[in-house]
Amino acid sequence: MTDDRTEGSMKKMKGDLKEGAGNLTGDSKLQSEGKSDKAEGKIQNVIGGIKDALTGKK
């Protein structure tokens, strides 16, 4: 598994936490940061999956 998949998963988790905290506190800036982090994490995870598929790693 590539580092991209691991880092992407961590960014997505960080985004989930930020968005949840923003929802609880009503902080729209924190919510949008969380959504942005989640999107970046998903993209990075997909890129890592493609790299794994090309190199034959699981």
In short:
By secondary structure, this protein is mainly α. It has helices spanning 3-25, 28-55. Helix 1 (3-25) packs antiparallel against helix 2.
List the helices and strands and how they pair.
Blueprint: H1 3-25, H2 28-55
Helix pairs in contact: 1-2
Describe it.
- The chain is mainly α and 58 residues long.
- 88% of the residues lie in helices and 0% in strands.
- The chain has helices at 3-25, 28-55.
- The termini are close together.
Task: Throw out a few tags for this protein.
rod-shaped, mainly alpha, 58 residues
Major beta sheet summary: none
Poorly predicted segments: none
Q: Count all strands and give the number.
A: 0
Q: Categorize the overall geometry.
A: rod-shaped
Helix and strand pattern: HH
The helix fraction, in percent, is over 70%
Q: Quote the average pLDDT.
A: 93
Radius of gyration: 13 Å
Structural class: mainly alpha
Q: What separation lies between the terminal Cα atoms?
A: 6 Å
* Assembly of the depicted chains: single chain
Q: Approximately how much beta-strand content do the residues carry?
A: under 5%
Count helical runs. Answer: 2
